[in-house]
Specification:
heterodimer; A: alpha+beta; 2 domains; three-stranded antiparallel beta sheet; 5 strands; 21% strand; B: mainly alpha; Potassium Channel Kv1.1, Chain A; three-stranded mixed beta sheet; 3 strands; 55% helix; 7% strand; Skp1_comp_POZ (chain B); Skp1_comp_dimer (chain B); ubl conjugation pathway (chain B)
C-alpha cells in the first residue's frame, strides 16, 4: 500500500504541496470518500480538518454523528407539560461536548415558560413554548457547535 | 480529429490556437479542444491565441500541459456534440477506457494535474482527477495518505494531534 514517492522533494517544496491544494479541489476529492475514510482524512493535515469540520462545505460532505438527544417514556408522554431531554455522547472525548439538554439558553428567556418538542428533522428541533393560549415556536439546532481536537 | 465547432466558412479547417507553458514550450491545438478550459474559453472566443501570439500559461509546465491537452483533444468532439445525440455506446466506452488509462499515472504527476485542472477550470478533468485521488486515499491511514500525496512528515505536535484523533475517531479506523 505505502507507495512512497521515489524521490522526495525538499522540505520547502513539500510544505507548499501540503498547503497548495486549493480548497475547491480538495472538497472535490473529499466529497467522493465514504464516511470512514473521510473522517480518517481529518487528521491528514490541519487544513483538511478545518475543511471537513468547517461549516462551508457541509452540503457536500457527510456529517459525523455527534450524539443522540432522547426523552424517556415518562417525560415523552407528559410532554405537553414540557419533557426533559437527555443527551448521549457515544464517543470517548478528551474535551466533552458542550451540550445542555435542558436548553437553558432558551429557558432563560423571560417569555419562555415551558418548552415542548413538536417535531424534529435533520438535526433540527421544532420546539413549542406556550403560555396558555398563546403559542410561539422556536427552532433550535440539535447539532452542537463543533469542538475540534 | 475534432470537427470544427461552427461553420465559419473555412471548409472544415479547424481554428488553431497556441498555448505557451511556463517553461516556454509552445503547443498548437484546436481551439475547440483548448476551449474545454473555462479559463481559456473567453480568451479564445475573443480571438486570442491565434497567429504568432499564443496564450501564456505561467502556472503550467510543459509536461503537465501536454498531458492536459491529451485529455482535451480526446474529449473535445464529445463536448462539442453536447455529449449526447451523436455519442454511441462505443464512443462512450472508448472515452471511459481512455479516462481510466489517463489517470493511471505517477503520483508526482497527479499533483500537478490537480493544480492544472483547477487553474484551467476543466470540469471533466477536475472530477476525473478527484475521483482518482479519492480512490487512492480510501484504504489508507492518515500517514499513508500524507506519503501518497508527498506531504512532509508530521511534526511531533502534529503527530500527537493525529494520535488523539485516532483515539477519538476509533470507529473510522476499524
Amino acid at each position: 500500500m505505502g507507495e512512497g514517492l521515489s524521490e522526495r522533494p525538499n522540505r520547502k517544496k513539500r510544505a507548499e504541496v501540503e498547503d497548495g491544494i486549493p480548497d475547491d479541489a480538495l472538497v472535490e476529492v473529499l466529497s467522493r470518500l465514504p464516511v470512514k475514510p473521510l473522517h480518517r482524512s481529518k487528521c491528514v493535515a490541519k487544513a483538511w480538518l478545518e475543511l471537513i469540520d468547517g461549516p462551508h462545505h457541509r452540503k457536500k460532505l457527510p456529517h459525523t454523528l455527534e450524539g443522540f438527544f432522547f426523552m424517556d417514556k415518562e417525560s415523552y408522554s407528559s410532554r405537553r407539560n414540557g419533557g426533559r431531554f437527555g443527551f448521549i455522547d457515544p464517543r470517548p472525548r478528551f474535551v466533552p461536548l458542550d451540550i445542555d439538554p435542558s436548553f437553558y439558553f432558551l429557558m432563560k428567556r423571560p417569555e419562555i415558560k415551558v418548552l415542548t418538542l413538536s417535531d424534529s428533522c435533520n438535526g433540527l428541533f421544532l420546539l413549542e413554548h406556550g403560555l396558555k393560549s398563546l403559542t410561539d415556536l422556536a427552532i433550535s439546532s440539535a447539532i452542537p457547535p463543533r469542538s475540534n481536537v | 480529429m475534432a470537427a470544427p465547432e461552427s461553420g465559419d466558412g473555412n471548409n472544415g479547417a479547424a481554428r488553431m490556437v497556441t498555448l505557451i507553458s511556463s517553461d516556454n514550450t509552445r503547443f498548437e491545438v484546436e481551439a475547440a479542444a483548448a476551449s474545454l478550459s473555462q479559463t481559456l474559453q473567453l480568451t479564445i472566443l475573443d480571438g486570442g491565441g491565434g497567429g504568432g501570439d499564443g496564450i501564456p500559461l505561467p502556472n503550467v509546465d510543459s509536461a503537465t500541459l501536454s498531458k492536459v491537452l491529451e485529455y482535451c483533444i480526446k474529449h473535445a468532439p464529445a463536448a462539442a456534440n453536447g455529449g449526447a445525440p451523436n455519442a454511441t455506446a462505443v464512443d462512450r466506452a472508448e472515452l471511459e477506457r481512455f479516462d481510466n488509462e489517463f489517470v493511471n499515472i505517477d503520483q508526482s504527476v497527479l499533483y500537478s494535474l490537480i493544480m492544472a485542472a483547477h487553474n484551467l477550470e476543466i470540469e471533466g478533468l477536475q472530477s476525473l482527477v478527484a475521483k482518482k485521488v479519492a480512490d487512492m486515499i480510501k484504504g489508507k491511514s492518515p500517514m499513508e495518505i500524507r506519503r501518497t500525496l508527498g506531504f512532509p512528515d508530521p511534526t511531533p505536535e502534529e503527530q500527537a494531534e493525529m494520535n488523539a484523533h485516532m483515539l477519538e475517531y476509533g470507529w473510522a479506523y476499524e
